[in-house]
Amino acid sequence: MDLPYRPCVGAALFNRDGLVLVARRADLPNAEGAPGGWQLPQGGIDGAEDPALAIFRELKEEVGTDAAIILGEHPDWLSYDLPPELLGKALGGRYRGQRQKWFALGFTGRDEEIRLDLDPHPEFDAWRWAPLAELPAMAVGFKRAIYEVLARDFARYAVPR
């Protein structure tokens, strides 16, 4: 299939202790410890939307709060391809994978403000704070390389502030 990449943003949201917010996919509720069950918030860019604005919209939609500040931005767009068995099915069947702009964000709110129940069809059903270095082990195989890049390149934000 000759499909395009979906333009997307991703959020590594760090709390004051230097831990990153990970959320469990609602479509994989039994994947508590399985790779791929947990991920960082991410989502599509609408048309010509500025990625720095899209990241706050996506945070609000997926985790119920946009109480954050941008600490940094990955200099590159990072891409992944869907595995063959998901082509034509995942991402509405319209994309071969995603091309993502990643942001490191500092959470400025309180844990109580993180709400997964505000969307009638939530993407996530649980969340927690985790060490950044654990991200690659949590990722589904086809996203693992991106999480390895983030664990390395965003390590400077994974410190208490």
From TrEMBL:
CDD domains the UniProt entry points to: NUDIX_Ap4A_hydrolase_plant_like (cd03671)
| Any single Pfam family the record assigns to this protein | NUDIX
Where is the short sequence motif Nudix box located? Answer: 43-64
Q: Which domain of life is it from?
A: Bacteria
**Nudix hydrolase domain: which residues?**
4-152
Please provide, alphabetically and separated by semicolons, the GO molecular function terms listed in this UniProt record. hydrolase activity
What is this protein's function? Answer: Accelerates the degradation of transcripts by removing pyrophosphate from the 5'-end of triphosphorylated RNA, leading to a more labile monophosphorylated state that can stimulate subsequent ribonuclease cleavage.
Protein name, please? RNA pyrophosphohydrolase
